[in-house]
Write a structure and sequence with these properties.
The chain is mainly β. The model has no long low-confidence stretch (mean pLDDT 95). A 5-stranded antiparallel sheet has the order 4-3-2-1-5, with no helix packed on it. Helices cover 0% and strands 54% of the residues.
Length: 56
């Protein structure tokens, strides 16, 4: 995954964003994994775990 990649959210932990399509704005490596900041097509700007998304 890289900045500007288009992704789809596949996590079931938040049904509000499940299936949302968006673009990666920022990537942050943490001690427990990698987080990505995305902006969805409907304008939501959120951070999620990179494992909760796939390249679209």
């Amino acid at each position: 995954m890289a900045v500007n990649d288009k992704i789809e959210v596949i996590s079931n932990s938040n049904p509000e964003i499940y299936g949302a399509v968006g673009t990666i704005l920022e990537i942050s490596k943490t001690t427990i994994g990698t987080d990505i900041r995305i902006k969805t097509e409907n304008g939501l700007d959120i951070w999620i775990d990179a494992e909760d998304a796939v390249i679209y």
